[in-house]
Write a structure and sequence with these properties.
The chain starts with a strand and ends with a strand. Strands 3, 4, 5, 8, 9, 10 and 11 form a seven-stranded parallel β-sheet that branches. It has a six-stranded mixed β-sheet with strand order 1-12-13-19-15-16, with no helix packed on it. The chain folds into three domains: about 120 residues; about 230 residues, TIM Barrel; about 60 residues, no CATH class. Helix content is about 35%, strand content about 20%. The chain has 13 helices and 19 strands. It is of the alpha/beta class. The structure holds zinc ion.
């Protein structure tokens, strides 16, 4: 970010040369001193967080579990807190379903008799196995993915060989194991989801079927990412195709490369060098980070105490660079590691009470704000009794539409200040004058590239 400001109080330089110990001189010295304090008049920055808050919190949910919408959402609505729901689109009626794309199934199975699993056929076999029709096969797909991602490649190949042997012998079964992300009661419809977006919530992608993307071949990997995006676009609109979370919190390089080309923001990982990311497993302390922003992900699992959960919020308030991203799964007995509705009631009430310090916003809105701030070029000009501010940005205004908060220093002598935006002449806004160690300032919101912002003394 840059700012330029033209300073029109040149008088003081001339004064310094002429200064003598005389009454006139003393008066001039006084003028000089007071103007010196005000050297930053017109200086304008975008505050770190919207509303000049101390930190940001995004409340996110994974897997589209029904109780997230019927239990957690109403509590959030009561406190006016927006959430981000990463949904598995294949579970929603009307969407593209999960499927294997590739050679005929029987060819792949036949080949597995003759050719052991290797780097050439592993992705194809691991992609197919999840769609062979039993919950046991699905579990094996997930297990192979877990082995592969933790670097146990040989074990992953051996597991696939074992599973294909079972498949060929008809030994794969439907087990009674609960698949947490895929409850039969998750019957939320696109109409429901549309209504939730109208309440201010973000609906975002968590793929079509929640696979281990790292072990899918290219065509199946792309289907999971692209079909999910196109259904969200079709039923909810372009706005909700901004964020995604690839299942199991993967940070697999190959997956990240594909996913970043399709979604502008991933909760898994972001490309920005100024953003430190402490994922859910990280033991690092966010306050120790030297980066400008820290995305601090925490998972309130079943056994995480209320005290710990509240301490995350308190930590945010202690520093000013933390973006706390909460990751919820199950609620009231349905879904992985569930919390109860009562716990959410207490926790969201706590967050709400600390609202004067916190900006609670969706994952997309916080991402957009940070990028808008880092991309903006700000200029300001001081003329007589006005300060003219301009912000420009090369980000797409159709996507980057979150208002940024500007902070401009104003002369102490100004007692009442009006903001006039040229593009909305009729809209003159009286601003509250505030003070910090650098002087008097005003806060106001604006979007880049929308024309001059004129602050004037009334
Ligand atoms: Zn998930």
């Amino acid at each position: 970010m840059y700012f330029f400001y033209n300073y029109h109080y040149h008088l003081k330089d001339k004064i310094m040369n002429k200064c003598r110990i005389s009454l006139f001189g003393i008066i001039l010295l006084f003028v000089s001193c007071t103007t010196k304090i005000e050297e930053n008049i017109g200086q304008t920055v975008i505050t770190k967080w919207q509303g000049n808050k101390q930190s940001a919190i995004s409340i996110t949910y994974d897997d589209g579990i029904i109780n997230q919408f019927t239990v957690a959402r109403p509590i959030m609505n009561k406190f006016g807190l927006p959430g981000t729901f990463f949904i598995i689109t294949g579970k929603v009626t009307g969407s593209g379903k999960g499927k294997f794309i590739g050679r005929p199934e029987e060819d792949i199975i036949k080949e597995s008799v003759l050719v052991k699993t290797n780097s050439d056929n592993f992705f194809e076999r691991a992609s197919l196995i999840g769609f062979t029709g039993t919950s046991e096969a699905l579990e094996y797909h997930s297990e192979a993915g877990s082995l592969f991602e933790s670097g146990n490649i040989t074990e992953a190949y051996e597991l696939i060989d074992k599973v294909y042997l079972k498949l060929r012998s008809g030994d794969l079964k439907n087990t009674d194991d609960v698949i947490f992300h895929n409850n039969p009661v998750d019957t939320t419809s696109w109409n429901d989801l549309k209504a939730y977006t109208a309440e201010g919530h973000e609906i975002a992608s968590h793929t079509v079927t929640h696979p281990r993307l790292a072990v899918l071949d290219e065509v199946n990997l792309l289907y999971e990412l692209e079909q999910s995006k196109s259904d969200i676009q079709k039923f909810l609109g372009e706005k909700y195709t901004f964020s995604a979370e690839c299942p199991y919190g993967t940070e697999n390089e190959r997956v990240m490369e594909y996913a970043h080309k399709i979604y502008p923001a991933l909760r898994n990982r972001m490309p920005e060098s100024y953003l430190d990311e402490l994922n859910r497993a990280s033991k690092r302390q966010p306050g120790k980070s030297e980066k400008e922003y820290v995305q601090w992900q925490r998972g309130p699992l079943t056994n995480v105490s209320m005290e710990i959960m509240k301490s995350w919020v308190d930590t945010c308030i202690k520093y000013n660079n933390i973006w706390l991203v909460l990751v919820f799964h199950g609620i009231d007995g349905i879904g992985w590691e569930p919390k109860t509705g009562d716990e959410l009631e207490e926790y969201f009430s706590y967050i709400n009470k600390k609202g004067t310090h916190l900006w609670i916003a969706t994952f997309a809105d916080v991402t957009k704000y940070i990028r808008e701030r880092k991309n903006a070029i700000i200029s300001s000009m001081v003329q007589d009794n006005t300060i003219v501010v301009n912000i420009s940005s090369d980000l797409d205004p159709e996507i980057y539409d979150v208002p940024v908060t500007l902070k401009t220093y104003v002369p102490k002598a100004w007692k009442s200040i009006l903001l006039n935006q040229k593009f909305k002449q009729e809209n003159e806004l009286k601003l509250k004058i505030q003070k910090d160690e650098l002087g008097s300032y005003v806060l106001y919101s604006a979007l880049p590239n929308e024309g001059e912002l004129i602050l004037k003394e009334k």
